[in-house]
Amino acid sequence: MPIDDWEPPAVLLTVDLVILTLREAGLRVLLIERGVPPHQGALALPGGFLGHLGEDIEAAARRELAEEAGLGDRSLHLEQLGVYGEPGRDPRGRVVSVAYLAVAPRLPDPVAGTDASGAGWHTAESVLSGEVTLAFDHRRIVADGVERARAKLEHSSLATAFCAETFTISELQEVYEAVWGTRLDPRNFYRKVQRTEGFIVADGPSRRTENGRPARLFRAGPRTVLHPPMVRP
Amino acid sequence: MPIDDWEPPAVLLTVDLVILTLREAGLRVLLIERGVPPHQGALALPGGFLGHLGEDIEAAARRELAEEAGLGDRSLHLEQLGVYGEPGRDPRGRVVSVAYLAVAPRLPDPVAGTDASGAGWHTAESVLSGEVTLAFDHRRIVADGVERARAKLEHSSLATAFCAETFTISELQEVYEAVWGTRLDPRNFYRKVQRTEGFIVADGPSRRTENGRPARLFRAGPRTVLHPPMVRP
DNA sequence: GCCACTTACTGTCAGACTGACAAAAAGCTA
DNA sequence: TAGCTTTTTGTCAGTCTGACAGTAAGTGGC
Q: For chain B, what are the domain ranges?
């Protein structure tokens, strides 16, 4: 149907990052303050344009992860979330964004300051409820990212990506409780996690202490798919 | 870091469609024969460039669904699968493709002829095994689409999208068996499906006959999320 | 009309998994 | 040593699953 000299339209490609972590027992997402128009000064997801025409999209995501979030050399979970390309979502023209979901273990404070309303780790709740306003369609992207994380906690070992290399079972439980926003019975959780072969493996006879009985340390096991799954109440 | 007059690179955007259906009790995917270079004459997924700069991506997918597959007015399941934008995947330049997964009920023969090696419905097995060769990275896209369908059969009511408006429980079972590539016990399947409230609802006292005892007819119920899920053996 | 055959549907039963709860173990503080 | 906290091990009844038997309701052959 197109006439012989028809040329397909070209679009601008960006990557946006939903970076999740746990802080103070709550699910947090990293937001930056935009330094340039459009939406200058507004909060938004870290991200940016493809660097050059030959750059791989996931490579661009990792580059932004380093540049904007200071999470360069770390090995963290990174997966594609989806494409957001509705016409009109960006006043600069036809901008299509590939969103990625990243999960980071508990970290020291991020690049920028920690003003409650500035760049930094904001609770997922404040973003989803609209208490914090984001630029573009980024609130929807965060919502999709959080829902993806919630779903993957059920069927995959994603929860271990929120933890340090070694962790206790209660720390793992805190991940589930924070991401799902529910409380779980420690005894049933303990049983379930222990009986799911390959989910977590004991890390030597070491222990750790703080207040009560010392807890055994574990690390992520080889299994990535949980069968049967953890069930969200 | 970018210099002041830096301009972000522009890419070409395409949509590709993984259209799945059931034919002769097997899972099939629709392939077309490319009429223009690159890969002229090779088999590929239906799809094409964004029509114009203001076209919505999902709208483009629906347009290709109508133009290339003749599935225009039908209401069928359509969801975004992911982005495939590796540099070098398309010799025409930097082409980024948004893949969609579509699920269609059993249909009459598609647009083109039915040569075993030509355009038309090919078994998913022949594509995944490499017996049939596809252009670009389309084999990987098909693999991801099939895996997505397999996973969603567990937790959602996607299976009903493979069926006509009304269907019997054995027809629904055939969907699961074809997509998963396994055999299921009809009695346990019957029980499981019946007890999952809202998955399927009886469609009047009507029946249908062919060989054995007539089967009750059902239609898709209001529930889209299955809880507890169907389990893949 | 009776019989064989096919498919649809209803049960049964033992084992696995889950949710709710009790109790013991192992550290700390006072 | 007593009291507190948190971890770990059990218990028990209800539910769900997988394997399998048996009944119901059509077809076609004779």
A: 3-154, 156-220
pLDDT of residue B112: 54
Q: Do A85 and B231 touch (CB under 8 A)?
A: no
> Which DSSP symbol is given to B160?
G
Q: Count A/B contacts: CB-CB distance under 8 Å.
A: 86
Q: CB distance from A55 to chain B under 8 Å?
A: yes
Helix H segments across chain B? 57-69, 124-128, 138-155, 169-180, 186-195
Classified by CATH at the fold level, domain A156-220 comes out as Arc Repressor Mutant, subunit A (1.10.10)
Architecture in CATH of A3-154: Alpha-Beta Complex (3.90)
Residue nearest to nucleotide D17 (CA to C1'): B188
Query: In this structure, which amino acid lies at residue B147?
Result: E
B67 near A CB under 8 A: yes
pLDDT confidence of residue A166? 95
Long-range contacts of B210-217 (CB under 8 A, 24+ apart): B215/B168, B215/B169, B215/B170, B216/B168, B216/B169, B217/B166, B217/B167, B217/B168
First to last CA, chain A: 53
Model confidence pTM above 0.85: yes
Contact predicate A64/A15, CB 8 Å: yes
pLDDT, tens digit, 9 for 90 and up, residues B109-125: 655 544 556 789 999 99
Question: B94 and A53 in contact by Cβ < 8 A?
Answer: yes
**Which nucleotides in chain C have some atom under 7 angstroms from a protein Cβ?**
5-12, 17-23, 25-28
User: What secondary structure does DSSP assign to A59-99, as a single string?
Assistant: HHHHHHHHHHHS--S---EEEEEEEE--TTSSTTSSEEEEE
CB A31 within 8 A of CB A42: no
pLDDT band at A206 (very low <50, low <70, confident <90, very high): confident
Letter for the amino acid at A52?
Answer: H
pLDDT tens-digit profile of B115-170? 556 789 999 999 999 999 999 999 999 999 999 999 999 999 999 999 999 999 99
A98 touches chain B (CB under 8 A): yes
